[in-house]
Every structure is written in structure tokens, then in C-alpha cells.
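Worked Example 4.2. Read the sequence first, then its C-alpha cells.
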Amino acid sequence: MYDLSKTIDDKNCQIIAKATSLLRDFSFYFRRKFSSLDDDMKTAFEDHTKFIKQLCDQILLLCVDKQLYYSIEDDGCGLTMWF
């Protein structure tokens, strides 16, 4: 998702987490099209890192019967999971 200025809400997080449990591999990333960020975009990306952690936690709760591996990017704006 490029330059998304608003974070995805809890309801959508749950929908994404449920759909993820049906997949073999899953990746979800927030990206910036340009290197400079205004204050609004900086705040949005801080919220995106919180969302990535929340999404990861939701998926882990839904997939307790599966062995999975995951990686959160160093900047916190990306999540990759392998089932």
C-alpha cells in the first residue's frame, strides 16, 4: 500500500487476519513513494507500524494449530508470514 495516509481499522485487521489463515504465504507492506515525509505522513507511518504488529498478533491467535514463521521489517512497515 503506497502513501496510505490513514491506518486500517480494527475491523479490517480482523478480516485480513482471517483471510490470511487460508493462505500458504502472506505479505503486507506499507511503502512511501517519495523519501520526504510531511508530519501527517510521519504520523501515518507510525500508525502503520502499530497496525503491522496488531495484524501479526491477530494472525498468530487465529493460527495456533499451524506452524508458522514470520518476519516484521526493521522499520515496522512490513510483515511476511510463511505457513
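Now turn to a second chain, presented in exactly the same format:
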Amino acid sequence: MLSRLRHFRAAYLLVGSSALVFWVISFWLPLPEYLAAISSEKYANYEIPLKIFVALFLVFAILNLVTAALFATRINPTAKFYLAVIPAGLLLLGPFIIAIPVSQQFPDRNYFEVFQAFYRLLRFTKVDTFALALIITLLAVALNVYAGMLVRRTQDADRISDKLRNRYLIYTAIVALLAGGFTAANVINSTYRWLDRAACQKYIARELPQLDSEIPPFLSDIMLYGQSAGTSQLQSAFITFSMVSRQYYELLNASDDEIIIKDLESQVANAKNTVSQLCSEFATD
């Protein structure tokens, strides 16, 4: 009976591992849009490594769920062990191997510099998201290895009592609910990031006004970018930039009070800098 219970527990670990990896995958959602972006001429030198990287994580997440289902069956424990450990090894070593051809294009750069820059192309543009992506990858690998070791130490899955079976069905539902909730939260966050990215790309592509008559439409567009952004932080930054800039523009033409004008000018510069800093996260497509 203990053997079968360990197989169930190992399956839960695999589901948790897939849920963790989905956090990384969520940075590429919507996937067709990201794949189209890295297929452009801009990324021609890195297209194949990037797509292999994406495929590695997608296959790992899906294969883990399939393997978790197989862990509930009575197939050979050794086969289950390899089904858990081999994908973990590929996930651990894969990113470093995939980055090697990219690093060879920059012989004057340290490999780990190129490795981090490669992750920037995968939308992990901030130090904290880059570090978290690595940590989550290691955690997923560790969960898979631990799951494999759990079944490796057991014999063939034996029968369990109806009472325990019902209890573990409840546990399975709870694990599925938690993993589903975590995945749903990542999908929602990815939608916010997508909206932020779209707003920032419109802002970056927007030409600066050259004439006084072009300033009001420009500031109206900035306000629209803020209203269409996903996160409240970027929304507030765009809207503040638009409102303070409008006040500065109107006062510049209606007042000679240099102290107030200088203060508003400083506020405009700070607001623009805040927008630039927030949009720097979306420097890659």
C-alpha cells in the first residue's frame, strides 16, 4: 500500500513542477504573437535557439502532466523514474546548451553575459525576473528528481483500500485546484503584461510633437496609452505624464511665473522618466 501512496505523492510533485514552469511560459503569452516576433528579421540570428528554448519548456510542462497521470497507473517504477528524471536533466542543462551557439557569435564577451542577454530576448529583462526564472527552473528540476526518487525506492504500485483511495482522490482534486489557480493567476498576469507591452510599444513608436499644434493630440495619445495599459502602475505613470505635461504646456502659454513653470518642468521630466523606466521592461518584442 505504501508503494502506491508514494506513486500518488510523486505525481503531485510533477503537477507542481509543471505549474512552476508555467510561470516561465507565461512570459511568452500570447504564444503566437511571441513566436511571430522572434521570427522577424530583427531576431534572425537567434530565432532557432529561442524557439528551441520555448519548445523545451512547453514540452517539459506537458510531458510532466502526462507522466503524473502515468504515475497513478501500475507501470514499471523504473520507467516512471526515467520519465521524471530525463526531462528534468534536459530542463537543467538545456538552457546552457542552447545559449552556446549564441555565445559563439560574441567571442569577446563572457559566456554568462551572453547567457543573461539571451534571457532578455526571452522577455526576462529585469534582474529579478531573470533570477526568478533560474530559481523556478531549478525548483522544477528538483521536484522532478525527488518524484523520480520516490518511485525508484518502491516496488510495483500495489493496491490500496477504498478509504485511502477516496482520500487521495480528494488530495488529487486539491492539488489540481491549486495548480489550476496558480496557472490561472499567471495567465491573468500575462494578460496585464501584454497590455503593458502594447501600450509601451505604441508610446515608443509615437513621434514626438514638432509643432505647438501637435502637442495636444500627443498628450491625448499618452492618456489613451495609460487607459489601455494593464497594470495600475503603468496606467498611473502614463496618465500622470499626460496631465502634468498638459498643465505645463497650458501654463507656459498663460503665465510668467518661472518658479511654477520650473516646478512643472521638473515634474514632467520625472513623469517621463518613470514611464521610460517602466517601459524598459518591454524593450524586447
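Notes for the reader: The CA atoms of residues 64 and 149 lie 15 Å apart. The chain is about 80% helix and 0% strand.
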